C-alpha cells in the first residue's frame, strides 16, 4: 500500500495498490466499451479466474475525483462495484487502474430492444426507474451529484432475468457539500434571487433532468426527428399513440423531472415518494412502444445520445456559472472571507 494518493474533501482516503496490476490480473485485448477517457478492457483475476472490467485513467485531478467518488459509493446495489484500484507508472506516466465488476448484461436500452418475451410494460418501466432513482438518491444523500446520467452509463450485471441494473462512470461526479455553508440562512445574500437555489441543488437537479429524459425514452417516445429537438428545447409533449395508454401519474412525474426551471424541478426525495416510483409493483401493465421505437430509431440513436451529452455539458457549465455569478454579486467583507475559503476548498478538490 502507498501513501494515500486520493483524498476526498470529506476525509475519505483511498489507498491504491502500487504493485503491478499484472501481478494479480491477466489483461485481455477484449474491449468491453469505448469512452472519452479510453477503453474499458476485460481482465481476469489470476487467483480465482473471475472476469472483471478494467478502466485505465491517466493521473489528473479529474481522474482522482472520479476514482475517489466512485469508490465511496461502490457498495450500493445499483452502482457498479469497484474491486481494486492500482496506481502504476508506465514510462513515467502515472495511471489509475480501476478494476470493476464486469457488467455482462450490456446497456439498458440495448436490453429493452432485445427483449424477446412480450412487450415492455409500464410496470417494468417503473421498476427500472425505481432502481435508477434509488442509485441517484444514494448519491444525493451523500451530497454527490453524478452529472453524467445517461443511458450508456446504465448497465446490467447479466444478460438474463437475474441481471441487476447499475449506474457507472463517475467522470463528472462532484461532491457538493463543500458549498453547504453558503446556503445557511445567515448567508442568504448569496441567494437573494429566488431562482438561485445554491450550486449543490443545481448540480443535483441536473441528475433529475437526466432521469426525466431516460423515463421519457423508456416509455417509447419516437426517437427521431423530434427527440433531439425536444432535448434541446425542453419541450416534451405526450403525443398519441405512444402515450395514449400511459398513466397520468407517469406523465406528471416526467413533467416534474423535466421542468425547465431547475428551482421548480422535483428533487430526488420527491421523486422517490411519488406513488408511481414508490409503488412500482402496482403500476398498470400497459404495453409500451419502447422496444419497437428503439429498433426503428436505431440509426438515429447516436444523435440522441450526442444531444443528451451536449445538454448535460451545457448544464454543468451553466450551473457552475450561476455559482460564480452568485458569489460575485455579494459584497460583504465577512462573506468575502468565507467566499475565498470556499473557493480554495473547491480548487483543492
Ligand atoms: N464495469 C463494466 N463492465 C462492462 N462494460 C463496461 C464497464 N464499465 C464500462 N463499460 C463499458 O465501457 C463504456 C465506457 O465506460 P465509461 O462510461 O466508464 O468510460 P468513459 O470514458 O468515462 O465514457 P464516457 O465517454 O461515457 O464519459 C461503457 O459505456 C460500457 O459500455
β-strand amount: 15-25%
Largest sheet: 5 strands, antiparallel
Q: Which class of secondary structure composition applies to the elements? A: alpha+beta
Distance between the termini: 22 Å
Number of strands: 12
**CATH H level of the largest domain: which superfamily?**
Transferase(Phosphotransferase) domain 1
Total helical segments: 13
What ranges have pLDDT less than 50 throughout 5 or more consecutive residues? 179-196, 330-349
- Domain tally: 2
Order of helices and strands: EEHEEEHEEEHHEEEEHHHHHHHHH
**Percent helix among the residues?**
40-55%
- Identify the strand order in the major beta sheet: 3-4-5-7-6
What would you say this structure looks like, in words?
The strands form four sheets. Strands 3-4-5-7-6 form a five-stranded antiparallel sheet. The chain has helices spanning 21-24, 61-73, 108-114, 122-141, 180-183, 199-218, 226-233, 248-257, 268-273, 275-278, 290-296, 301-328, 333-348; strands spanning 6-7, 13-14, 25-35, 38-45, 51-58, 82-90, 93-101, 106-107, 144-145, 154-156, 165-167, 174-175. The chain is of the alpha+beta class. The relative contact order is 0.12. Adenosine-5'-triphosphate binds at residues 32-33, 35-37, 40, 53, 55, 80, 100-103, 152-153, 155, 168-169, 171. Residues 26-277 form the Protein kinase domain. One of its GO terms (biological process) is regulation of cell size. Its EC number is 2.7.11.1.
